[in-house]
Amino acid sequence: MLIKSNASGVEHVPPSEITPKTIYEDRRGALKRLALGVSSGPLAALSSGHVHGQTSQVYPSPGKLTPLAARVATLDGGVTMEKPTAYKDASTYNNFYEFGTDKADPSRNAHTLVTSPWSVDVEGLVKRPGRWALEDLLRLSSLEERIYRLRCVEGWSMVIPWVGYSLAELIKRVEPQGSAKFVEFVTLADAKTMPLVGSRVLDWPYVEGLRMDEAMHPLTLLTFGMYGEVLPNQSGAPVRLVVPWKYGFKSAKSIVKIRFTDRQPATAWNKAAANEYGFYSNVNPAVDHPRWSQATERRIGEDGLFSKKRKTLMFNGYENQVGQLYAGMDLKKLY
Amino acid sequence: MNQWLLHRSTKSVVFFLGCLPVLWLGVAAWSDQLGANPAEALVRSTGDWTLRILCVVLSITPLRVTFKISALARFRRMLGLFVYFYVVVHFLAYAWLDMGFELIDVGSDLAKRPFIFVGFACLMLLTPLAATSFSRAIKWLGGDRWQMLHRLVYVVAVLALVHFFWMRAGKNNFNEVFVYAAIVAMLLGWRIRNASK
């Protein structure tokens, strides 16, 4: 083995590889805050004090909705160290077409959504089908805080602290049959409270789906809250999915039905424009959408107006965790 | 109406009105009033204003003829130049805020995304019109040739609609596009009918 050394016999790290002190200190601060956590109040009405835990508090808690405490996730990829997007931006810049196609529409219009009582039907190729009341879903497993990157197909991104648990926990509980290959998520379509249901913008209800192994992946989060509180309506209250390595539209909001099937589900965007929205829709900088380049993305709320866009990462940066799910697949064809 | 429009100050008033959108956007950007994605808001709204002023320009002749308000012609050139101004600002906002002024990125984006290419074509087609907007240019070119050249604005109007439609396609959200398309169709339809009389 060749060992390079200089005259003094000390191998110096090139200056470019030295982490600047400010970043180093800030990371330590963030880690310390994560490790210590801040004990927070019980999850008031929803869990009747069942769930206690610690939140990371790397972001200011908005204090607008019912607190939803959770312990910080420890799984690989579960907590990115990137700076969370401001709650104000994350809760006012949304795609939720049932409430309007402009990004500001959902936060303006979604107050009509009735989130209680709420239940989720589990059906299809499963040994234990049935109806889950939201309260029972919340009690099914302990809540975790996951700080994920979110990448929208339109070329913008955020960093959001979600609260929930791996969808796998629910799947294991309902015991899918061997023939179940896909999971379909059907979301609420209530023309009375959702102004665009009935329009021709999409074929309602909104349907999304995952392959079974994607649904079972620990990073796939059944989500009840964000920023230490229950989800605001425009973000998919009271229960939604978050699949961090796929474009945002794969993460269905306000779910009312979870169905296990042996066939690839006909998903809403795929039905609307199959050439633009594939079933998989994994974040992939090499496969462009006809109107949005996927090579770069704008992180919402980052620096100033003239800050450069950042390069998009394969699988939204979760390649180490999920890359093996797609081994041998042509992701240009199966986008 | 004619008397009133012929007043000395009306051109300054129209000029001020034409500047209002860009002034307002500037103030809004400065004071962080453009929402979570100010870059997107700037690119979109400068595009909207281009299309709106284009519709105003195209409505001058039909209004002038139908209601016999000859004085409207005084504002046509200035408003035409405002269309060019807003399309340039729209392009610069895209090239700067979206592409970080990386010309290579802009070039590959033009080749990659047809709707961007169509928008860029509008800018290119409007450039000779803006460049020949002064009175001497009419003399140099001769009235007929000048007019032929400036009929390119009809092509631009249609391409601008294609650009807008394409941007909204796939999101299936065409309401606004249809409003502009209806206005442009009316204004161009009037010309076709008028010419065949």
TrEMBL record, chain A:
**Top EC class per UniProt?**
oxidoreductase
Q: What are the names of the required cofactors?
A: Mo-molybdopterin
Q: How is the co-factor bound, per the entry?
A: Binds 1 Mo-molybdopterin (Mo-MPT) cofactor per subunit.
Instruction: Keywords in alphabetical order, please.
Output: Metal-binding, Molybdenum, Oxidoreductase, Signal
Task: Tell me the SUPFAM superfamilies matching this sequence.
Answer: Oxidoreductase molybdopterin-binding domain
Gene Ontology terms, MF aspect: metal ion binding; molybdopterin cofactor binding; oxidoreductase activity, acting on a sulfur group of donors, quinone or similar compound as acceptor
Binding positions for Mo-molybdopterin?
Answer: 94, 97-98, 152, 187, 240, 251-253
Q: What is its EC number?
A: 1.8.5.-
Establish whether keyword Oxidoreductase is in the entry: yes
Summarize the subunit comment.
Heterodimer of a catalytic subunit (MsrP) and a heme-binding subunit (MsrQ).
**What is this protein for, i.e. what is its function?**
Part of the MsrPQ system that repairs oxidized periplasmic proteins containing methionine sulfoxide residues (Met-O), using respiratory chain electrons. Thus protects these proteins from oxidative-stress damage caused by reactive species of oxygen and chlorine generated by the host defense mechanisms. MsrPQ is essential for the maintenance of envelope integrity under bleach stress, rescuing a wide series of structurally unrelated periplasmic proteins from methionine oxidation.
Name assigned to this protein = Protein-methionine-sulfoxide reductase catalytic subunit MsrP
Its source organism is Rhodoferax aquaticus
Source organism phylogeny: Bacteria, Pseudomonadati, Pseudomonadota, Betaproteobacteria, Burkholderiales
Q: Tell me the gene name.
A: msrP
From TrEMBL, chain B:
Key word Heme present in the record?
yes
A Pfam family (short name) is Ferric_reduct
Cofactor names from the entry are: FMN; heme b
Q: Which residues cross the membrane?
A: 12-29, 49-67, 79-97, 117-137, 149-167, 173-192
Could you state one GO biological process linked to this protein? protein repair
User: Where is the protein found, in the record's own terms?
Assistant: Cell membrane; Membrane
Q: Keyword Cell wall biogenesis/degradation, does the record have it?
A: no
> Boundaries of each Ferric oxidoreductase domain copy?
53-160
Task: Provide the Gene Ontology terms for cellular component.
Answer: plasma membrane
Family matches, as PANTHER family:
PROTEIN-METHIONINE-SULFOXIDE REDUCTASE HEME-BINDING SUBUNIT MSRQ
The record's similarity note reads: Belongs to the MsrQ family.
State the name under which the record lists this protein.
Protein-methionine-sulfoxide reductase heme-binding subunit MsrQ
Q: Which organism is it from?
A: Rhodoferax aquaticus
